[in-house]
Amino acid sequence: MTHDYKLLINGKLVPGASEFDVVNPATGDAFAKCPKADVDLLEQAVKAAKDAFKDWSKRPVDERAEMVGKLSEALEARADEFARLLTAEQGKPLDQAMYEVMGAIFTLRAFAGMRLEQRTLRDEDGNKVIEHRTPLGVVASITPWNFPLILLMNKLGPCLVTGNTMVAKPAPTTPLTTLLFGELANEILPAGVLNIVCDENELGPLMTSHPDIAKVAFTGSTATGKKVMQSAAESVKRVTLELGGNDAAIVMDDVDPKMVAQKVYEGAMKNAGQICVAIKRAYVPEAMYDEFCDELAKLAKDTVVDEGMKQGAQVGPVQNKMQYEKVKEFLADAREKGKVIAGGEALDRPGYFIAPTVVRDLPEDAKVVQEEQFGPVLPVLKYNDIDDVIARANDSEYGLAGTVWGKDLKRAMDVAMRIDSGTVWVNQHLAIDANIPFRGSKQSGMGGELGLEGLYEYTQPHVVNSVPLE
Ligand code: NAD
What we know:
Number of domains: 2
CATH topology of the largest domain: Aldehyde Dehydrogenase, Chain A, domain 1
Structural class: alpha/beta
Pfam family, one: Aldedh
Number of strands: 24
InterPro entries: Ald_DH/histidinol_DH, Ald_DH_C, Ald_DH_CS_GLU, Ald_DH_N, Aldehyde_DH_dom, LUC3-like
Helix content: 25-40%
Shape: globular
Oligomer: single chain
Strand order of the largest sheet: 14-15-16-13-12-18-19
Active site: 242
Protein name: Aldehyde dehydrogenase
Radius of gyration: 23 Å
Strand content: 15-25%
Bound molecules: nicotinamide-adenine-dinucleotide
Largest sheet: 7 strands, mixed
CATH class of the largest domain: Alpha Beta
Distance between the termini: 73 Å
Domain Aldehyde dehydrogenase: 18-463
């Protein structure tokens, strides 16, 4: 692969001020160069977005939406190429990469079809109050490395449809799919409407404090999210924060352990566990604990761990060296505090591979239960009392999502209603849909993405309140 990747600034594909290596996590070797923006290039990108806002925000919404639809079509036409590049830079198996690309296409298409209508809040005795929504200005999109493409589209779709412009910055370890998208977007969007800059973690603070940026749409860790919020406070920027999670799966006592173990396992191991809403701890009734754990261990041992490009690979590498080292710390804690019944080690091969790991008999205060492991490691805990398990699931600074698995749907739904998180899925996992709002509670985030609420986040309500002149 010798593609010459370029930044996108003011309708031009431009080289960076310097460049850095992009590593394939399946080998640990650099396979491409990424252009790196300096402060000057960032300033050019912000200025381009600010200038483009003047025309873009005034275009009819249907015209803007049509272009978002065209972005979706252009992505679809090159879906295979994007999926392969995503696997190369991110590590996920090719079928999961294609799933992300298809999700990105669907998300853009869904937003192209959404509109925020003007509302009449009052129309009586000559007093008319209308509320309409106006765009904010330049939006900074800052994305992480686990789903580089779809997380950008969750922001770009609503940003453009509502009349804002964007400066997007991907994570340093997965910049290439965003840059490739910039190439096709440049054929469709007017100059300056979307600008893309890349960095090695230096530009984020400059973007979140920039006086000409009106909103920061951030997805990443809670620790960085707090910095974003602090930095954005100076100019009272709008922020949406999609942050970390430590989602619990609660297994009810009426399920077939074998069937549900399979579903919980998949929810924990997809994308090598690097999903904000991955199942990060499982709570299982004591009566079926042994059988459930045995089934999980069997599934883990049978999992094909390999390079994402290899046909049949089910779990790929962890995305980057830093995360790989972090997951190894979780493994050390798991080995010390609990009983590892599958995996437990990094694989002895190049790249950042961790064997799918299942740990049982852990105390509730173990690191892997309390913190976000963000890797293919599943702690399994037992419970006897439903109130107790709900309290344990809720005893977290996070509140992103969670799952409840039960045959008696009413009982399962009752438990779901008591889980303190933005989303709870019952008998399914990862049912994220561009038409359904998604947001985290507690330290998992602020504001939301997707659905009509996702559009509102990119607008300012504007009220006009009139009476006749008498
Ligand atoms: P991260 O916070 O380290 O980085 C995210 C982005 O922020 C990167 O682009 C990075 O360059 C940038 N950044 C770094 N320092 C910054 C600063 N001071 N100011 C502004 N930007 C800065 O996160 P990560 O490790 O790339 O991603 C993993 C995390 O993301 C996990 O915690 C995961 O749960 C979370 N996540 C959340 C969601 C969600 O929707 N809630 C989705 C995916 C991932």
